[in-house]
Each structure stands twice: as C-alpha cells, then as structure tokens.
Amino acid sequence: MNSADLAFTPALDQARLIRQKEISPLDLVEVYLERIERLNPQLGSYVFVAAEQAIADAKAKTEHLTHTPSEDLPPFFGVPISIKDLNPVAGMPCTFGVRWLKKRIAQEDDGVVQRIKQAGFVILGKTATSEAGTLPYTEPDGFPPARNPWSLQHTPGGSSGGAAAALAAGLCAVAQGSDGGGSVRGPAFCCGLVGIKPSRGRVTYAPLGDRLSGLATNGPLGRTTTDTAALLDVMSGYVPGDPYWLPDPESSFLSAANSPFKSLKIAFSTGIPAIGEADADCRQAVLDTASLLESLGHQVEPRSLPPCLEELIEPFTTMFQAVLNEAGTPEIFLGKMNRWFALRARFCSCGAYLRAVSKVQLIARRIVASFDDIDVFLLPTYLHSTIRVGEWARYRPAKTLEKIIHWIAPCPPFNATGQPAIAIPTGFTASRLPIGVQLVGHPAADETLIALAAQIEAARPWSQHRPPLVL
Asked: pLDDT tens, 141-150?
C-alpha cells in the first residue's frame, strides 16, 4: 500500500492494521506529517502542526505495541486525528480563530480531547476555525483562509472548515469538530464527508461548560459512516456536572452502522418555509436520496417543515452574538462581521437575551412536535453549493448575514431543538463540487440516523472519491 492509499484508509482499518502490526503508529504519523508539510500551505487547514509532540507520542506508542497484547489496546491506538482550534489541547495554541490569542497556550485538555487521548489517538495539530466559531466559512483575520481541497478557490465551510479540509485532503484519519449552527454538517457538505451533530447531551462540554444554552455540541467528521460513528462512541458520555446529558445507548454507535434493516417513515423537503428552496443541485440531491430510500423499502413522503423557522433568526442571532460580547476580546482584534455582532450585543440587555432563549425553546417545541408521526426528516444540508473564498467580503455585515441565513437555513433549527442530524455526501455538482443531504431524527435517536446513513452509503458508496489536489 502506497502512502496516499494509507492516508485515505479508513481509521478503523488503520487501527486494525496497527493491532496486527502490519503498520506502526510512527509509520502513520510520518505519512500524515509529510502530507501536511506538502499540502497545508495551499489549504490553510491546520493553524498549528504538533509535529514534535505527534512523533514523540507515535514513537512511544510504537514501542508500547511491541509488548502489549492487541486486546489490551484502546480502540484507536496510534491513529492520527486533528482537533479544532476551539478546543484546548494542553501545551498547544488555542486561538479560537482570534488573532489577539495567537500566543495563547492551553494549560489543560478539553473534556472531549481527554476522551480522544484515552481512545489512543495521536493528535497531529489544531485545525482552522472561523473567528470565534461564528461564521460558516473559515477566513479569520490574521490567519490564511482555509480552502477546499476539491477547489482551492472555494471555502471548505465553517466553523469546522479546517477540520473538513484536512480530512478531505488526507491530512488526518478522522477529525473532531463542533456544531452550533451547522458547523460540522456544513463543512461535511462542502468537502464530501460524513458529519454528525449529536443529540444535545450526548457529548460533554466539560470542563468549561456550555455558553450557548444548548445550541452547540462537539461532533465527529469522517470519510465513512462507520469511522464517524466510531468516533462518536469515543466522544460520547456524561461528565459529572454537565448541564445536559443522555444515558449511554444500549449498544455502540458503530454497531448501529451494521444493524439489520428496519423500515422507517421518512419525510422530505427541498426547502425551508419563508426562507427559500434549495438550488437545482441541492434539490436534486434530496429527490434522488428520497427515491433511493423508497427503493430500499422505506416509506417516503414529501412534507413541509413548520412555518415557524423564520422566527428563529432573530433570537438565534441574539444568543450567538452574546458569546462574542462575553468573551471580552477588544473589537479592534475582530473581523468585520464579529465587530458588528459585538456592537449589536452591547445594546442587548440581559432580559433581551433571556427572552431570546425562551423564544428559541418555544419554537423548538413546535419543530420537535412535527416529528411525532415520522422517524426521520430528509433535507438539504445547505440551500446551495459552497461559496468562493472571500465571495461575501465586499458586503456590509447586514447583507452578509442575509446571505449566510439563506445558505445555511436547514441547519440551525436542529441546534435549537437539540435533535441529532447527520450530513452525508451524495455526489457532485456539474463543476465537481461536493453535494449532499442531511438526515434529522428524534431527540436521542442518533443510532437511527447512523443506521440509515450506512444503508445509503452501502447502496451508493462515496469514500472512494479523492480531491484532484491530492491526486
């Protein structure tokens, strides 16, 4: 197997090869570090490459492998992963995509990072995020923009844009991301990957806690459904004091990807009420997937989402911009959009914030109730394919926000509800940009979505595709 094929080998297969001693953790890390050195200058996917730490960890794991039975190894022993630059890793920079924080070194691991280390992963470095994680493209001031490996002129999305770009280009085996309004699902859509926004309470936000009243969660990115599900197994679990939590599932998420067929009642829509229809490519992706699901034996019917989704925009924005104000970053160090958000937040009272939270929760109840007689809702991930790097830079902030809302409209409602959602690739536009759909399930029904995504992948595999950049 050549180095490129090894880089694109599924993470679960890499873990198996390490266990069988056909490759070593050091072999894998060296493959990825060489690729990062060669391709990252074009992609801007990593903002910090932890080469020395990764090599030291890989050497120690390679030595450990020589005298440890394979059954005693953690599940992803020696497999390389990336961590988003919103999540602290002890001894590495954690900038949150803010140039004012470029020299900030994290003193302790985030809770999800602790779980990733316990699973045996080797951390390759920190991947780029949009500034403070607020935008669906990754072009923070003071950093090079992250670029899509399928087309360097286009964004890989945001805020987990660097994670998706790195993974799609074969610069890590799987990637950790987070999703507060589509920030895992959107980059997965832009880069031809699988991205899961888990149910609220599935993944801890320890030790810092949640600052968005339940809108955001950590989530996994992978090239296959099984890799992504297995990473969710690693990331999941309650930490004492978490404000939201779910009981552990009866079986693993990985096993859900291999579960027996079960006929589901699936609704689908190609647009978002009062906001708009998906463009021709995204609309066709939904219709083709609906047709496939029907052929697989599911009950499929068209249906509109509740008409209240437009009412989410104002309170959702109020909640998001409050985080910027609370962080206390001097506005001079923020980009144009976040300066505008921070200014707006200054004139938002505590009472207005609490009213926004209550309004989001009330609308969320209506959305969840619309799932009473169905199992899954099939929707576009975004309403049109990925944009070019800098495409909206010339607009004033209010106009940019309008553009953002129309693009990402199918994603934020399910951050409001806390429902699980999975973005899966389905093909390409005529210009060879990735395209895909999202599946949304009942609260806590992550396993149902993973099983359904695995069925779709088995019928129409996607992980064999590689971006032209890496060929």
From this structure: 999 999 999 9
221 Cβ neighbours under 8 A, 6+ residues apart:
160, 163, 164, 167, 174, 175, 176, 177, 184, 187, 188, 193, 194, 195, 228, 231
Distance CA 452, CA 458 (A): 10
Which of 127, 128, 115, 117 lies closest to 232 in space, CA to CA?
115
Lookup: tokens for 59? 């050497």
> How many CB atoms sit inside 10 A of residue 195's CB?
35
Q: Looking at the annotation, which residues are catalytic?
A: 84, 159, 183
**Main-chain dihedrals φ then ψ at residue 440, nearest 5 degrees:** -120, 135
Report field, pTM of the whole predicted structure over 0.90: yes
Helices (H), 312-436: 313-327, 336-346, 350-369, 397-408, 412-417
Write out the two tokens for 321.
Answer: 């911009």
CATH 1.10.10.10 fits 3-470, yes or no: no
Q: Tokens 């910090």 appear where?
A: 48
Could you identify the residue written with the tokens 């070593």? 24
Spatial separation of the C-alpha atoms in residues 310 and 134, rounded to whole Å: 19
Nearest-angstrom CA–CA distance, 377 and 439: 6
Write the CA distances from 248 to 92, 161, 207, 233, 234, integer angstroms.
Answer: 31, 29, 20, 10, 12
Strands (E), 20-63: 46-49
Going by pLDDT thresholds of 50, 70 and 90, the confidence category of residue 327 is confident
Buried-state track 440-454, b at ≥16 Cβ within 10 A, e below 16:
bbbbbbbbbbbbbbb
Nearest alpha carbon to residue 122 among 243, 11, 217:
11
What are residue 250's phi and psi, to 5 degrees? -65, -35
Q: Is residue 232 within 8 Å of residue 198, measured between CB atoms?
A: yes
Here the tokens at position 349 are 């009272």
375's CB contacts (< 8 A; 6+ apart) are 264, 265, 266, 441, 442, 445, 448
The string of pLDDT tens digits covering residues 77-90 is 999 999 999 999 99
Residues 6 or more apart whose Cβ sits within 8 Å of residue 55: 26, 29, 30, 33
Coil, helix or strand for 388? strand
118's tokens: 């316990």
- pLDDT tens-digit profile of 417-436? 999 999 999 999 999 999 99
Measured CA to CA, the distance from residue 183 to residue 135 in angstroms comes to: 8
